[in-house]
Amino acid sequence: MTKVINVLDPRTGDRVTQVPITEPADCDEAIRRAAEAAPGWARTPPAERAAAIAAAAADVRAVARELAELNERETGKLRDDALGGVDAGVGTLMQYAQLGPLHRGRGLQGGWSATDLMVPQPRGVVAVLTSWNDPVAVAAGLLGAALVTGNTVVHKPSERSPQTGRRFAELLAARLPDGVLQIVDGDETVGTRLAEAERVDVVAHVGSSAAGRDIARACAERGAKVLLENGGNDALIVDADVDPAWAAGQAALGAFANAGQICVSVERIYVVQSIADAFVGALAGEAASWAERIGPLVDERHRDQVHAHVEDAVRRGAHVLAGGEPGPGPGAFYPPTVLTDCTPDMLVMSEETFGPVAAVRMVPDFASALAEAADDRYGLAATVLTADMAHAQEAWHSLPVGTVKINNVFGGAPGGASQPRRASGTGFGFGPELLDEMTTMKVVHWSPPA
């Protein structure tokens, strides 16, 4: 009997859809089809590959509201936020359509009659396993970069947003030759099968660090390349010389946007003692104003995990200034929550909570904040709010994370890359550098015959 995924509406608990899990034989068939399509797609002129991606981007834009509605029903993401994710995905596809044909190569002159060519080539079959919290925008980056550089792809959308992920991927596949983009549905068992498949050359995964470790181990055993973006425990440092009300607004945006379900959400806050009282008072007020502006968490299982982190903090001495209890009634709602007197041993400070929880720790000075923020096993991103140029310089140099944002929790130019570290993953995500990750350089030495 075929196993199925039941997707429930996080607002009501009603069933949204039931998706069959791809059988092992069908998963293997998808890999086979992608592998057989790989030589032909690699030979396709880069401009033609780019044109197909650009055409698919236009198709996605044309059904943006449909995709946003699917996303809202499956994950509870607010409609405008879901539309923003689709727009971001379209922009990413267009970026790779423009950059793909220009992807670099170079020549080296040896002797007068000899030349070394360095040419990027596709790696082969890429398995792309994406997350539910922004299913279109995240998939657009990995799929776009893999396809435009001549790889074929087997894509598994998250089991928490299977309809959104499949509909998006189908729009791309419709513009591509047969076999170039294959789609499978399933849970971690399907992801494991893709990671262990001998004919898969690259596994790109966005999800939990536990799953990422298993994928990295499987890829290491057979020599496949792995790209991982496995979340983070992003710190926010609030220096003594900033306006507390403004800083509280930044903290609330970072902690509460999309109900805290963003890979680079603010997870832990270090505020210098001299402005701590004014800051936490303003942050509690921000939490109240955000209460009507966030949707539910993705499901009740995730809500229970978020609440377990809050309960752990309270047991260990944290105080609740706002929120702290699941919302009444049906669904997976959790209110914007502010915790003070947090300590490093609490789960809200040491692990990724991935919910609308602002965990605040008061520290004596900026140096202490910087030292504690750096003492973490994750390495995705961090934010520093300061008017002191020397402090800003010291922070971006010393924080062991892939991205440091100064005075803007969600700052960053379009097209910028990110490179997680340590438990947060490995390899570039987005940006021109992702094209390098999806290709391998071949050196050709060319000399005349003797």
Protein described:
It holds the Pfam family Aldedh. InterPro entries: Ald_DH/histidinol_DH (IPR016161), Ald_DH_C (IPR016163), Ald_DH_N (IPR016162), Aldehyde_DH_dom (IPR015590). Keywords: Oxidoreductase. It is an enzyme of class 1 (oxidoreductase). One of its GO terms (molecular function) is succinate-semialdehyde dehydrogenase (NADP+) activity. The protein has 450 residues and is α/β, with parallel strands linked by helices. The chain has two domains: 4-230 and 424-446, Aldehyde Dehydrogenase, Chain A, domain 1 (3-Layer(aba) Sandwich); 235-406, 3-Layer(aba) Sandwich (Aldehyde Dehydrogenase, Chain A, domain 2). It has 15 helices and 20 strands. It has helices at residues 24-43, 46-62, 64-75, 79-99, 135-148, 162-173, 188-196, 209-222, 244-256, 276-290, 300-315, 347-350, 366-374, 389-398, 433-437, and strands at 4-8, 15-20, 106-109, 115-122, 125-129, 152-156, 181-183, 202-206, 225-229, 235-238, 268-272, 319-322, 337-340, 357-363, 378-379, 381-385, 403-406, 421-422, 425-426, 439-446. It has a seven-stranded mixed sheet with strand order 12-13-14-11-10-16-17, with helices on both faces. A hairpin with a 6-residue loop joins β1 and β2. The mean pLDDT is 96.
List keywords for this structure.
42% helix; Aldehyde_DH_dom; 2 domains; 450 residues; Ald_DH/histidinol_DH; seven-stranded mixed sheet; alpha/beta; 15 helices; Aldehyde Dehydrogenase, Chain A, domain 2; 20 strands; six-stranded mixed sheet; 21% strand; Aldehyde Dehydrogenase, Chain A, domain 1
